[in-house]
Input
Amino acid sequence: MWSSIRPPGQSSPRLTWPASSAPIPRQTTATTSSTASPTAPIPAHSSSPANAGPPSSRCGLNPSPDAPLVAGVDGAKGGWVVAVTTTEPGSPVAFSLRPSFADVWAQAQNQGVVAVGVDMPIGLPGQERRRSDVEARELLGPRRSSLFWTPPLCALNATDHAEANRLSRVETGRGLSIQAFHLLPKVREVRAVLTPEDLGPHAKPQAAEVHPETSFAVLAGQPMAASKRQPDGQAERLDALAPEFDNLDRAPPLLAGATLDDLLDAAAAAWTARRMAAGTATVLGEGDIDPTGFPMAIWA
Output
């Protein structure tokens, strides 16, 4: 149960799960376009209230109808890292590792979570590149290589890289990177659980695809300078997250089967889920739908 999660440094869980949650306000505008300059400054977003008080006064997750739960999910070697917080700016975040995406989604439904940001491609392109990938790479500028081109739908069920690469070349005229191929098992797992309706504006929970590096760029006002796997890059990401989660003033304890960058990516996805719930998220490639009906947008 997610009710067993506790934030870093908290000795026992203090979670009160809501019986019901308010509907998610519909996202109405996309704030980034494919014509944006890769080097143009990104407006920084800060959602921490000035009168939030010290961390000790807000040491537990206390969801309510006015501040329901949201979650960020990141694929990890040991399963799926889930970062749970509330819609209240500055509220703490709690981490857990789930064995399957089906388990993640069942818990989100059972516990009244209103928005879930998923760090995994969901809508897959046909012959052309996804507009959301193009826009995200433009926004990321020097960090664009952190976003792999999304595998085409034709390669979804390929059993090895050679087959996926061949199918991609036949359908799109382009090969498929080994990094993108390694995403496919998790992509299949997500698509086996979610339906296109789960990504719709009236879904509860509402799921959306996120890309943490894009979320970090929007959060910080510029792309991250260092790799998330380097100490400097991890410190940089913690600095960006600390004002948004009052218990991330230091690195959270690691989970078996996950790395620190997995946890930070999940927290960035949870920050985006907050913005989804508030109707303030940036949506790249908004309105684009894949051949099976799944949206191909990236939210940040």
In short: The chain is about 30% helix and 10% strand. The domain at 57-148+188-299 is CATH 3.30.420 (Nucleotidyltransferase; domain 5). The first helix runs from residue 101 to 110. Helices lie at 101-110, 131-140, 161-172, 178-193, 212-220, 231-241, 260-278.
